[in-house]
Amino acid sequence: MSPNLANQGKLIFTSNCINCHKLTDQRLVGPGWAGITNNRRPEWILNMIINTDEMLAHDEEAILQLEDCLTRMPSQDLTLAEARAILEFMRKNDMQQVKQKDGAVHK
C-alpha cells in the first residue's frame, strides 16, 4: 500500500464520495466501504469508479448493488490516477478496520 496515494484518495473521498458512502459497513446512500477490497477485485472497484454507467448497465454484481441501494451512482469524472488513489484509501481503510476488530477481540 502506498501511504501517499492513500492520502490523496482520502482527499478525493472527502470531496467526492463522503456524501453517499461511509467507511464502515453501513449504507448511507450507497454501500459502506468497509471490506470492499476484500470482497471485490481491484479491477472491479476501479471500473465502478471510472466507468459507472457501463458497469451499471452490464455488470451483474453492480446491477445487484443498484437494486439493493436503489440509487444510481453518478459519474464523478475521475481519472484512472484518481481512482487508483481512492482504491489505495479503501485498502488502508480495510486494513484499519481489521486492526480495530482484532484489537477488540483480543481485549
UniProtKB/TrEMBL annotation:
One of its GO terms (molecular function) is electron transfer activity. The keyword Signal does not apply. Keywords: Heme, Iron, Metal-binding. InterPro entries: Cyt_c-like_dom, Cyt_c-like_dom_sf. Pfam families: Cytochrom_C. Residues 4-94 form the Cytochrome c domain. This is C-type cytochrome. It comes from Formosa sediminum.
